[in-house]
């Protein structure tokens, strides 16, 4: 008995030995490409380079932020956003008022069951640690 070219056992051994599921070769290649792309995106964010697409082109108004809002945005961009992007999500600052930071979770984070824990245990704890003015973080 011979195995067909591109069978599950060949793909699992040569393409993704650590995964329990048995993908076809195109799925295995997509899996690698996804992780390479996410790695490149994280590298881009960590260097502090400007975005290629301007916010004005996306229909977002450029607002003047207070000093505390600038600090919140800086922490979100440098410490939290790259970690969230590794899981295929995104987090955007929306508002800071009366000690409450409002953020929008996007991508895989928007429907993730553990996003509440990530928000409270990760994002809120980190922002409260660096900025005593922050009392709570909520998703909108």
Give a written overview of the molecule.
The protein has helices at 8-14, 25-47, 67-86, 115-130; strands at residues 89-97, 100-107, 136-139. The chain is of the alpha+beta class and 140 residues long. The chain folds into 2 domains: 8-47; 67-139, Fe-S cluster assembly (FSCA) (GMP Synthetase, Chain A, domain 3), CATH 3.30.300. The protein has a 3-stranded mixed β-sheet with strand order 1-2-3. Helix 3 runs antiparallel to helix 4. Residues 1-20 have low confidence and may be disordered.
Secondary-structure topology with pairs:
Blueprint: H1 8-14, H2 25-47, H3 67-86, E1 89-97, E2 100-107, H4 115-130, E3 136-139
Parallel strand pairs: 2-3
Antiparallel strand pairs: 1-2
Helix pairs in contact: 2-3, 3-4
Features:
GMP Synthetase, Chain A, domain 3, 140 residues, alpha+beta, 4 helices, three-stranded mixed sheet, 15% strand, 2 domains
Query: What strand order characterises the main sheet?
Result: 1-2-3
Percent of residues in helices comes to 40-55%
**If you consult CATH, what is the topology of the largest domain?**
GMP Synthetase, Chain A, domain 3
Structural class: alpha+beta
CATH architecture of the largest domain: 2-Layer Sandwich
Largest sheet: 3 strands, mixed
Envelope shape: globular
The fraction of residues assigned to DSSP E strands is 15-25%
Structurally, the number of domains stands at 2
Contiguous runs where pLDDT drops below 50 for at least 5 residues:
1-20
The helix/strand order is HHHEEHE
- CA-based gyration radius: 20 Å
- Note the gap between the termini: 57 Å
The CATH fourth-level homologous superfamily of the largest domain: Fe-S cluster assembly (FSCA)
């Amino acid at each position: 008995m011979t195995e067909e070219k591109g069978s599950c056992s060949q793909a699992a051994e040569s393409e993704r030995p650590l995964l329990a599921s048995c993908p076809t070769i195109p799925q295995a290649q997509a899996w690698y490409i996804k992780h390479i792309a996410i790695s490149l995106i994280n590298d881009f964010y960590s260097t502090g380079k400007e975005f290629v697409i301007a916010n004005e082109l996306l229909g977002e108004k450029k607002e003047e932020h207070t000093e505390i809002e600038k600090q919140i945005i800086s922490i979100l961009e440098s410490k939290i956003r790259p970690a969230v992007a590794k899981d295929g999500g995104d987090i955007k600052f929306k508002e800071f008022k009366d000690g409450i930071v409002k953020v929008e979770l996007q991508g895989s984070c928007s429907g993730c069951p553990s996003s509440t824990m990530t928000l409270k245990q990760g994002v809120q704890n980190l922002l409260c640690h660096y900025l005593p003015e922050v009392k709570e973080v909520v998703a909108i």
